[in-house]
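hey m, so remember when u said the tokens were messed up on ur end? i reran from scratch. heres the input so u can diff it against urs
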Amino acid sequence: MDPGFSISRRARGWALALTILLGLWTVAVVVLPNAVVWLIGDTLVIEGLTMPRVVWVLVALFTFLLAGVPALLLAQLSPVPFARTAGRQWLLAAGFGALLGVARLIPTTFHELYLAVLAALAAIAAAVHMSIKGRLEPRADRDRWMFWLSLAAGLLLLLPWLWVGALGGALESVLALLAALAVSWLATRPVLALTARAATAHNGWAGAALAGLLAGVGLTSLAAGVGEPAVQLMALLCVPPAAFALAALRHKGEPSVVALLTPVLFGPLALVDPDETSLILGLRDGLFWGGVGAAASGVLALLAAIAVLVAFRRARWRTWLSAALAAVIAVIGAVVYVTLGQPGLSGERLFVVMREQADLSGVAAIPNHAERVRQTYERLVATAERSQASLRAALRSRGLSYTPFYLVNGIEVDAGPVAREWLAGRTDVAHVLLNPHLRPLPATESPMHGTAAAPTSPPWNLTLIKADQVWARYSTGKGIVVGSSDSGVDGTHPALRANFRGGDDSWLDPYGPDRTPTDGNGHGTHTMATAVGAGVGVAPGAQWMACENLPRNLGSMANYLTCLQFMLAPYPAGADPWHAGRPDRAPQVLTNSWGCPTVEGCDLYSMRPAIDAFAAAGIFFVAAAGNTGPRCRSITDPPANYAATLTVGAVDRNAHVAEFSSRGPTPDGLTKPDVLAPGEDVLSALPGGGYDYLSGTSMATPHVAGVVALMWSANPALIGDVARTRAILAETATPATPTGKACATPADTTGAGLVDALAAVQAAVALPAH
């Protein structure tokens, strides 16, 4: 009998109540700070900032103190043995969790290294603890069948992850398995100690429930140190409920903690990409599906515990029958993964920027615009083919697949950190960037559908820049083609279907089967219609073409360059962009409501050759400033931070700079934005034939592209003269009211001012012939 029974029933009741309260306290101080700090960190990412990694170590230490000190007091002062055991093991688990949290000092861009360090820390801690406390000696007569039964339970808890998740690269998956094994080994003694003490103190369902609660609190502290921030929250949701399955098994024999917990931990560590858990991707992306997997796994853990307590009344199962159960669940898991899941590897890739970039000097002086575009294309391709030859041969010899690019002379390589070191050491390589590769989801979020009515007169944003006055007196943009790289375009929308350029080289979906313009999000439809849409567009007489570069609001160098190459030299879907490109079919104006931050692999200079190439070719390149205002120096992401980009900020209907509109100067000291345009509550088209209001510098950018289309349509002699067009836009802009604190100069908030379509077109038409 447990010595605790010599204590009065009342004292035992108070001790139990105090232990439960302390357990709830531990769960609260572990989960809430980590959730709040994750939310703060993710908000900073959305705002274009980063939270220092050391914050996570400080949070781990903070939670260790808040959870560990009360646990220590419980271990020392409680008169009840199981409460003292709980205090000791909770303190131990909190210490282990804090230790594992140190691995988060490693930046997210080195995820494989993080998993390796996590595995090493857990394994070392487990080995040290075992050397101090001695080896665990499970009962040999029950070890084999309980191992298989524990594994069966663990595989059952893995099933939801096989449905909602997707594996990364091969190395990443192996390291995730090693980390899951090591952490499970580390959890073995604390979990068994807690379940054993509770099982001894209370029999049946009460003992299993108490054991599950005690072990679950310990696993909560331990799980807090496992995984990158959002993955950690998923672990906190699915790992602690597994304690109830372990507790139920503990009432039947000696369960294998490693066999049960390893699949549970493998789920979030291997099948969720921490880069795809940001709210910036939306509420139905990786974070949502990871939460579904974690919650489903937790529910299955509770059901497994009930099943064990009900079905396994006696330990009459043989080893082979337990192994058969594990095998059946494994087969079910394989079927789920292959049929309902996302089988295959979706590891991160690398983008290798070559040291030599194309020399485009003299191209801008070519008087014929079509010839300028052609020579730009040919020089870029020739330079890339020559300078990449050696590296391509080396990649083939090592069996590494790759995709070459010419607009920025570089190669996307399907490889990981080992190849990264080799590539970075080559003399013909300037630098190597990470190139995120999205993992597939069970289902994607439905596109936005508007609820507003179609306008019957020009909306406020068009009248504010006087675009409607240009249509009546000068032009609607006829003869100009505007290209958009975005989430796609709904080509069937009434505002856009009539002026799609058509042909086999006016639409490209590099990542799907769509051969006609479609939009799975709505962002691209809205921006395209603002530029050229009937009833809502600045230049409704212009034509449009488009490419999908943001299928889920997370891009990469390869994503963006694929579409930009299509804009420089359009080609039929499936054709070779290097040799089938048609530079004579390039659009004259490009609208780009996107940016490439470090989370997508770009650095400050990675895309500059591409934007400089468009300037040399005489293709007008417009891009959004970003929505990280009113903070100064918030225009940091390519392509908005380049001199060759016409960078656009946003104003409201009163010509006040929108609070969200990013400000300069850029990291290079450039004054940005260049101009402003309406970007708050802008009415435009959305997929499915609807209309609605959206806000952002994304909405402001196509206004300026439309104004350039009006200018070049009214005076075709100006086509290709990017410098003069930029000068006119700046000279004719009207003052806008700054908001927020002052930056380095007033122009770092307002640029040259709000674009004036009428004044700009009038100035374009008045240019003397040359």
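this time it looks ok to me. The two ends are 105 Å apart (CA to CA). if urs says something different then somethings off w ur setup not the seq
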